[in-house]
Amino acid sequence: MEDKNRANQSMLVMKEGSFTAFLKESLKGISQIIYIENTITGLLILLAITVSSFSLGIIALLSAMIGTLVAKIGGADRTLIRQGLMSYNSVLTGLVLQTFLTGPTAWIVALVGAAITAIFTATLMYFFGNVGIPILTLPFILLTWFTLLASYKLEGIKLSDSLSPQSLANWELHIEGKINLLQSTFNGIGQIFFLTEAIPGLLLFIAVFWASTKMGIYAVIGNVVACVAALALAGEHALILLGLYGYNAILTILAVSVVYNTKENRYAPITGIVAACITVPLMASVSIWLLPLGLPALTMPFVLSTWLILGARKILPNI
Amino acid sequence: MEDKNRANQSMLVMKEGSFTAFLKESLKGISQIIYIENTITGLLILLAITVSSFSLGIIALLSAMIGTLVAKIGGADRTLIRQGLMSYNSVLTGLVLQTFLTGPTAWIVALVGAAITAIFTATLMYFFGNVGIPILTLPFILLTWFTLLASYKLEGIKLSDSLSPQSLANWELHIEGKINLLQSTFNGIGQIFFLTEAIPGLLLFIAVFWASTKMGIYAVIGNVVACVAALALAGEHALILLGLYGYNAILTILAVSVVYNTKENRYAPITGIVAACITVPLMASVSIWLLPLGLPALTMPFVLSTWLILGARKILPNI
Amino acid sequence: MEDKNRANQSMLVMKEGSFTAFLKESLKGISQIIYIENTITGLLILLAITVSSFSLGIIALLSAMIGTLVAKIGGADRTLIRQGLMSYNSVLTGLVLQTFLTGPTAWIVALVGAAITAIFTATLMYFFGNVGIPILTLPFILLTWFTLLASYKLEGIKLSDSLSPQSLANWELHIEGKINLLQSTFNGIGQIFFLTEAIPGLLLFIAVFWASTKMGIYAVIGNVVACVAALALAGEHALILLGLYGYNAILTILAVSVVYNTKENRYAPITGIVAACITVPLMASVSIWLLPLGLPALTMPFVLSTWLILGARKILPNI
After folding, report:
1. Which of B71, B73, B165 is closest, CB to CB, to C168?
2. Which among A286, B210, B224, B253 could bridge A297 via Cys, Cβ 3.0 to 4.6 Å?
3. Whole-angstrom distance, CA of residue C98 vs CA of residue C110
4. How far apart are CA B27 and CA B42, in angstroms?
5. Are A167 and B171 a contacting pair at CB < 8 A?
6. Confidence check: pLDDT of C103 > 80
7. Half-sphere exposure (CA, 13 Å, Cβ side) for A193?
8. What is the ipTM of this complex?
9. Which residues on chain C are in Cβ contact (under 8 Å) with A131?
10. pTM, 2 dp
C-alpha cells in the first residue's frame, strides 16, 4: 500500500499539472540556501545568478531540479522536498563545480555532482538528526572538496587553473590593498553564490528583504561586522574587498540570531554578532589548513561557527 | 556470578576441545573481511594468501587468533566473537603492516597492531552502534595510517621504501599504459588482501562463490563496472591494471546490494552499481588527500561510499 | 521563574561574598586539568605555573575566571561550574596561546581564546554527551590549532617563531642525545602545563599527591612506562628528555586506571599501562600528521588513547 503510494508519487512528477509544483520545489531549493522557503526569493536569486553568468543560471536551476528529483525517486519525506531542504546543497554543488571545472565534461560532472549531493544530503541528515543539529551546507562542502581533489588523478575531471596547492613553509602574508566597505558588502552576499559584482549583489539583497526585512537587516549587520573584524585583525585587504570575509558571517548571523534560535536564547542577537566575528579567524584557519591541497574554504567557517553556537546552546541556554 | 562465567570463558580458550572452536572463530575472522561467516571460505582465503607469500599467511592466521583472543579476554559478546566480527580488522592490520614494514621487528609491530586493532574495533563498534551504521574496515584503516606515520619518528618501526610523501604542488598525472580487463579483475579481488597475482585472485573468487553464488556474481560486476568507470574518467591505466580501482568497488557493491540491504530498498542492485562507480572518484580523492603524507588509501573509499548509501537509506528508503 | 533564577544567579557573581566562591570555582578549573576537584591543588598548580613565569600565572588565573564567567552568563548547570568542569579547557587555551603568540596583542588573543573555549566546551559536551564519552581536553586542542593556523593570514595574531611547518618529504629522524629518566619525569608532568623545569615539576607532583596518593603513584608509573616505551621504540632522545613522551601518558593512565574506570573493568591497572604505552606511537603519528602545518600535538595523543579504551570498554567490559 505504502509502496504503491510511493510509486504514484514518482509518476506524479511527470504529470503536467505537477510540473509547476516541481518547479516551485526546485526554486525553494535555491532560496533555502539562505534559509528562506519562498518561490519569489528563489526566482530573484536565480535572476541574480543568471545576470552574472547565463550558464551558471542554467546549472543552478538544473541542479535544483536534479536534487529534487533524486529525493523524490529515493522516497524522501514529501514535506522536506516541498520545503526545498533536500536540494539546496545540490544547487551549491552545481554552481561551484561549474565555476571551478573546465573542459567539455564540466557541466556533466557538475550535474552528476548535484545528484550525488542529494544522496549525501540524506546521509548527513540522518547522522546529524541523531544529535539534533542541522547539516547546513556540509554536504556541498565535502562533496566539492572530494571532487576537486579527484581531478588530480582523473583526466575526465579538469580543473580550471584557479587552484594552486602550496606548501605552508613558503607562505607569505601581504595585507596591503584598497578597501571599500560598500563594495565588500555587496561582494559578501554575492560570494554565497560565487558571484562578485554589484548588480547581482543588489538583487540578492532584494531577494532576502523580499522574504523578511529582519533577515535583510541581520545580513547587512553580519556582513559589516565581519569586515570590520577582519580589518581589526589585519586580514588581507584584497580578500576583504572580494567579500571573502563576509559571506560566512551573513549565513552565520542569520542561522544564530534568526533561524535556529528560541525564546530561551535571550542573548541571541549579541551571540549572532559574536559568531559572525568568529567566522573571520575561522576563515583564516580553514584556508591555511587547506593550503597544501589548494582547496577553497567554501562555507566551512559558517558551518563550524554555527555548530559551535547551536551545540553550546544545549548547555548554555542563554546564549 | 557473571564474573565467574567470564573467567571460565577465558579459561575455556586454553582447553583442548575448544581449540578447534577457537580456530574456527579465527577462520571466520578471515572470511568476514568479505562479509562471509564460513570456515571453508576463511580457509580458502588463507590458502590464497599463503600461496602468494608464506609469511603473510602465517601473519594472517596469527592476527585472526590474536584478535579473537583479545575480544575473549576483554569479555566481548560471544556471538560477535563466534561470527568473526571482532577479529577481521585485526587480520587486515596484520597483513598490511607486514607488507609495509621491514626490519627484524616488523612482525612484532604487525601482531601488536592486530591486538590493538581488536580493542579499536570495540571502540568504533560502540561509537557507530549509536547511529546504527556498521564500522566496516575503519579500525584497520585508521590504525594502519597511525602506525605508518609513527614510523617517521620512531626508529623501532621501519617502513619499507614503498611510501613516498609528495607535495601536491609537484604532482603530475600520466594516465598512459596497457590495459587488460581480465587481469584487472583478478587483481581487484586480490588487492582486498594486498595480493596482485592471478592464482591467489582465482582462489579468492572460488572462496566467494563457495559461500554464495550471488555474492560472487556481484563481486565480478562491481569490479568490472569500476574498471570501466575508471577508464571513462581517464584514470591512470597502471593503477587500473593493478586492481587499485577495483577492490573498493567489490566490497562496496557487496555491502550495498547483498549484505546491508532490506526489502524496502527496491533499487538496491542499481544503487550498488552506482556506489561501486562512486568509489572511483573517491579512490582518486583519498589518494590525493593522503599524498603529502605518503599514505595508501586502503579501503577508505569503500567505507565512505558504503556509509553514503547506508546513511542515505534512512531518509531515502527506495535506494 | 526559571529565567528569574538565572538572572539572579548571574548577579550573584558580582556580590562580595560570592567572589570567594567564584575564586574557588576558578581554582577548581585549574585543578580539573588533572581530574582533581580541589582548591588547594588548584592553588599549588597556579604556584607552579607562576614560579615558572609570572605572566603565565596571571593568564592561567584570568582564563579560569573568564571560563567560569562565560559558563555562568550562558546559564550552565551550577554543579558543572562549581566542579570546575566548564573552565579547565579555558585555562589550557590561555596558557598555550600566551606561550605560542607574541606581540602586544598576545594576551588579548589568549583571553578571548579562553572565552571562546568555554563556549566550545559546552558544544562538545553536548555532542559527546550523546555517546557518553568525556570531552577531556579536546576543546582546548582544536581551538588552539585553529588559532595558530589563523595567525598565518591575520597580522593581528602573531606567532612567536617556535612553529615551523615542514614538508614530510624533507623529514629526517635523528634520535641521538642524552637521557636522564629523573629529569624526563619532572618535565613530563610539567609539560601538561607547558613547563619544563624541576621546581615547577616538583610542585605539580606535590599538587597531585596532596589530592590523592593513588593518583600521584599512577602519574609516576605512567610517566616512567611511557619514557621506557619511547626508548624501546627508539624515539628522539631530546624529546624524551623534554618530557614530550610523558605528559600524555600521565593524563591517560589517570583517566583509564583511576578516574573513568568502574568495578567491572577488572584489568583497569594493566589497561592503563597499555594505554600509556599507546600514547607513545600516537604522539609520533600526531606530530608527523601535523608536520606540514607546523602545529604542536598538544594533548591529542592522550585524548585518542583514552577514548580508545573508554569506548572499547562498552564492548569489552573486562579491560
Report:
1. B165
2. A286
3. 6
4. 5
5. no
6. yes
7. 35
8. 0.92
9. 126-127, 130
10. 0.93
